[in-house]
Structures are given as C-alpha cells and as structure tokens.
C-alpha cells in the first residue's frame, strides 16, 4: 500500500540505526511531521524487535484510539490485528503494536516489571509533561537498567526540551525531523480584548466574535480551542446562527461522538469547538483555520478538595505552537490568536510539569508498590518537590496504604489496583467489605467530577446523589454532569444504588475518603467547625447542614478559616463504628492562650476533633502548676503581677550587674525569667491563673535562690533606700540610668556631702522638691547646688512659700520636713 510522503520519513533510517546501536533515543518532530503514524510502523522492521511488541503511550484516550485506527489503516487493517489499543474501559490487543494510555502503561509495568514480550516503549507527546508519562519513563528506565537492557525507549514530541530528556535517558541521541508540511499564517489581535473600552463581554463572547470573523474571512473548517466544556457550551450558544455546522470535541464525550468529529465532513463548513484534546496526535479532517482562545486547563493540587483538579490559565508558547500547527496539517492554514503579539512575549515558554503542581499521593503509592521510598532513586526528568512527597506519605499512612516504616501495606496494594485517587481507592476498598460497592462507586464518581449543582447550592452531598439517581424531590442538576457521573460510576460497579441508600451512606463514605476532614461543630459557635486534620472551617449560616454536630467536608474554599462548600452529615455512632481505632482518649492539662487560664479536660479525640470534652476536676495539682508555668513562658514574665518590692529588687540587681563590680549576681532580666522552671514553677502547684500568682511573695521567691552573702552584698552596694538627716527612708529608684531619689529641699539642709551608693561610690541623682512636692531642680552635686543655684531657688521659693523657712546659709542650717518662720 503506497503511503503519502511525510517529513518524518527522511529521518526514519537514522532513527532505526540509532535504536539498533543504542537502547534510547529522543525524536523531535514538529506538528504534522507524521511521527505518531510512521514511527511505530517503521520499527516493525527493526531486527532487534524480534517478535516483541511495540507499546506506544498516548496521553489521551481519543488520541490513543485514533492513532491505533490510523496505524491499522496504513496497513489496510482494522484495530485488533497487527495494531491494537488499550484504554480505560476498552481493549483491542494487537499482535505487534499496542497504543495505550498512561494509566494502562503503569499497570502493565507494575503487573510484570520484566515486561515480557515488549521490545520497545514509545512516549508520544512527551512535551505535555504529564505525571503518569514521567512516572512511566522513570519506571521504564529502572527496568532497562536492572532487568531489560535490551528494552528500547523512544521519547517523541513536537515541542520538547530535548536536552533534558536526553540527559535523563543516559545521554540519548537526539534526532530532529524537518519542519511542517504547510505554512500557517498567524494573526494576532490589534489590542487586548480585555482592554477598557471593549465592553463588559466575557471570554466566550470574545472567542465567538473572533470565530465568526475567521469564518467569514477564510475557507475550510475552523478548529476553536477552549479550556473546558463550560466554555464550549457558552461559546456554542453565542455562535448558533453561524453559516456552518457546529461540533464539539472533548474527553467527556462518548467515543462515537468523538469519532464523528474525526471523520471528513460533507456539505457545509464546520466550526469545531474543542478542548486541548485536539492539540496533539489528532488530525481533524477539513481544518484549515485555528482560533486559539489562549487558555488551557492543567492538573493542579486543589486544596479545596484534596484532589488534583483542572485549573485554567494562559497557554504556554509551546502549546500555542502546537495549536497553530493544527491548521497546517492538510494544507496552508491560518491561525487567529486571542491575544496581541506584544502579549505573546509574556507567555511561559513551556507549561510547568504536572509533577510540580499536582497532589502526589498517587505517585507515592505507585513508587511504594515499586519498592521505592525516595523518588531520588529513580530518574525523573523533574524531581518531585520534597514537601509534596512528605504530605503524600502522611495522607497514605493515614489511609493505611503505608505502614509506619513507609513500606506499602496489603491494603495499599489493593488501593493501587483501582484507577482513581488514593482517597477514593481507600473508600472503595473499605466500602466493598461493607456491602456498599455501588454507593461508593457513585460517590467516587461524584467527588471526581465537577459539582453537578450550581455555585452557591446547598452543601449536602446526599442531595447531589439523589439528583443523580433521579429523585424527583432533589434539586435540579446539570444533565451532562449527571451523565458523566453515572457513566463513571458504572465503570466501578455493575449497577447504580437506590437513592435513599446512597444518601444514607454518604457521610460514612465521605469520612473514609476524607478522614482528615471530619468536622466537629464548635460548642455554641455554629456554624463553625474544627476538622480532624486541625484546620478551622465555617459554613453558610443559612445552609441546612449548619446545625449538624458532625460533618465530613469534601470541598473547602481556602482562607484563614476554610469555607465548607460540599459536605455530608455523619453521626457520632457512625464515626465510632468506622473510625474507632483512630479515637484516642486523652486527659490534658494545658494553658489556654484564648482564655488565659489552665484548662484541665478529659476528651475523646478523632484527630483534632473532640467527640467528648468535659472538665477534669481531679487533675493533679502539680500538672496544673506545670501548665501555668507554660502560660508564664508563653506570655512572658512581664505578665506576672509583680509587687513594687520585687520590681525594685530586680532593678537593684540589674544595676549592679551593669556596673560589673560584683560577681555571682543572678540574671533577673525578662529574658532570663521567661523560663519559669528554674525559679517559679515549684511554687505554682494547684494554681490555674496568672492572677493567682499575686498571692505569692515574688520578692521572697527571688531571694530564695540567692546565697546569704550575695543578699548582704546587694543590700550594701545597692541599698533599697536613702536615709535622710531626719531619719526618713526614701526609696532609691534603680530603674533609671542613674539611681535616683526625690525629696524636699528642706530635708537636706546641713548636708554637705552628696548622697551616693555602691563601692566605689556613685552619686545619686537627687530631685529636689518644693513644699508642694513639685520638682525644683535635679543635681548630682549637692554642695555645688548650695553654693550656686540655691540663691535663685531661695528667691523663688520665698515668694511662693513665704511661710516656710529658706535660710541664707543652707549648709549650716538644720534640716526640716516642714519649716515656718
């Protein structure tokens, strides 16, 4: 059978020679070069293949099936003869070539690591950097190095970081194919469609406008790239009057509908609204025009659900090139882009690898099944982030898939056989032993797909299950979403459950999938909840589930306090029955920062959620004291009810330590006293509040830790008071930079030596007061004051206080507390 020449044909001889001499190779070929349909057939003739099969990996089911059909047609056959395929839910094995999807390859490898009967594995469209593809490559390289040195590995892509792949594959040879078959003319917007003045129309309206313009100005079918089904449906509604047949293409369609798009059209032109499913490996007949909306969906960890979900963002330049190339597969084409040429420079060169953005529990489970605990032991093109690996291991341990030693358990092996997220695989595995297989299959499908209810609907999952199962009393749900969920559920169970039975089991099943999101309502604070994983959550006050004591939150909106979007009610009895081994009875005595007191409680805990919580009235007094010490440690010594005498003693010691003339002095700074165990804790037995410490003698407690000699030294060198000539004791303030006293001028008559403390002496800062205790003057040289400034002070004081005695010669006068003429 004569084949149409394709650009890839020019490099096939070199590829055959390379794989004859080396086990690995990298093939870079632009869109339309023919790598998907020509390379597997060329390898059939390779001597090293013998009777072994060629397995080609495709990232999408429709691409895998289409590739198999095209390869078979090149041989004049149908799938199931020389060429076959194996995808989720369908298998037609071929004698020599099998096209498989990513999950199928992983199961093949895990089932029999030696891969008997397999001569080569081809990783097509590797530029998409899916986590399954990269895991498959890492496992294949491991097999090649340990068990099958004869196994050939070929990575193929249209837009590829060839150096990185070649290095990962042991410096594999890179082969580059010639360019596109036909040129593609590119048109950008003259201005950003979001620019002010363009109106308040949304993304779909802008795509519809560009599509209609492209339809009117060109010939051939128009392929429009949109990020998802919702955008496809909304865009379709805006262009329904177009003079063309409108078809849609996405992965959720039945295969017969997908296949219809891939057949040549008769009669009128077509507008094909497609997701990224049409980016690679597919040739859509008749397409000469591409309209690129510039958005794509990628798998990313969704903190709201704990699962990997698709999120929308700008395309990369590599993706844009892939899409553009669809217009040049069959002849010269035109590509219209919904962005300006200037905006194109801001697009990322490549989409980030999925391994950097998605939740990794599925990957870690596969690695554990392979016998690997550290991903560094395998040759990943991009090593997975350590934090994501740690989080995944924690979740798998909680689900019982990994043991304390990190090794996979028997339950984990069972989970790994189920083609779903480990949370859902755990739920399915446990549910089967509870005779709830059908209910679990439906719940798994519901949790995997988009919410069939509109945004803002009631949170109850049971209502969604009833709606899916046709309960007339349930709220209305999206029919396409219902069909997708029912189809997915039937893949895992033969029949759908009854509505009442499914609704009744919702809470228990959700708790199995989300043991870290079992929510206990806070007492008196509905609708606020504490999750078993330790996080706080809140629910809309008007939601019927807001008053439930227990919920399982399956979808959370991120925030300081997560908002519960979907949940299922569950009873305490059900939690004890199905999570009894995780419930821990604990007696706790701890400081409560919120209430600023020690709280002694007896609880039964399911993670961070308390099933029972009551006061522990007989808590040992020493535990109360230790907990109060923790409170002092947290709040700091400045929160203690210090008496003036204790503060004065601390200041005196601090002043002596600053001088450095005395050794052996204690450190009573806030920083040193912040650790209460060495000085305060033994005195706190039985106390529960910081205020109660006021009944203790903190001054005596401080002194109790000092030797008698140190106490005497402190009293001698930093006395607490100064005794006036009249015998009155004035407190010395050591908290200031210089120790100071304050007293009336009359009390110092006759004093000719300035007051001082310490050895060697340090003059006190003396604040002289009027008879009314108002400051008159500060001095550190009393004799000098008498001889100089006193004359002016005397004159002023005599005028203000004429009844008081103001001697002309104060140095020889008698001190008086209150003097009159």
Q: Which key terms come to mind for this protein?
A:
821 residues; alpha/beta; eight-stranded mixed beta sheet; 34% helix
Task: Write a structural description.
A hairpin with a 6-residue loop joins strand 17 and strand 18. The chain starts with 11 loop residues before the first helix and ends in a 21-residue tail after the last helix. With 821 residues, the protein is an alpha/beta fold. The protein has an eight-stranded mixed beta sheet with strand order 4-3-5-2-6-7-1-8, sandwiched between helices. The protein has a six-stranded parallel beta sheet with strand order 9-16-13-10-12-11, with helices on both faces. The chain is 34% helix and 21% strand. Helix 7 packs across helix 8 and helix 22 packs parallel to helix 24 (698-704). The longest helix has 16 residues, at 131-146.
In terms of structural class, how would the helical and strand content be classed? alpha/beta
Ranges with pLDDT <50 over ≥5 residues?
A: 195-200
Q: What profile does the largest beta sheet have?
A: 8 strands, mixed
Provide mean pLDDT, rounded: 90
Within the largest sheet, what's the order of strands?
4-3-5-2-6-7-1-8
How would you briefly describe this protein structure?
With about 800 residues, this protein is α/β, with parallel strands linked by helices.
Task: Present the secondary structure layout.
Elements: H1 12-21, E1 24-28, H2 35-43, E2 53-58, H3 61-74, E3 83-87, E4 90-92, E5 97-101, H4 102-111, E6 118-123, H5 131-146, E7 152-157, H6 162-168, E8 173-176, E9 184-189, H7 203-217, E10 221-225, H8 229-238, E11 245-249, H9 255-261, E12 270-274, E13 287-292, E14 295-302, E15 307-314, H10 317-325, E16 333-340, H11 341-344, H12 361-370, H13 386-398, H14 410-416, H15 422-433, H16 437-448, H17 461-468, H18 479-492, H19 499-513, E17 518-521, E18 528-531, E19 536-538, E20 550-557, E21 562-569, H20 572-579, E22 583-592, E23 597-606, E24 609-615, H21 621-635, H22 644-659, H23 670-673, H24 698-704, H25 708-717, E25 721-723, E26 729-731, E27 740-744, E28 756-757, E29 762-763, E30 765-769, E31 775-779, H26 782-787, H27 790-800
Parallel strand pairs: 1-7, 1-8, 2-5, 2-6, 3-5, 6-7, 9-16, 10-12, 10-13, 11-12, 13-16, 19-21, 27-30
Antiparallel strand pairs: 3-4, 14-15, 17-18, 17-20, 18-19, 20-21, 22-23, 23-24, 25-26, 28-29, 30-31
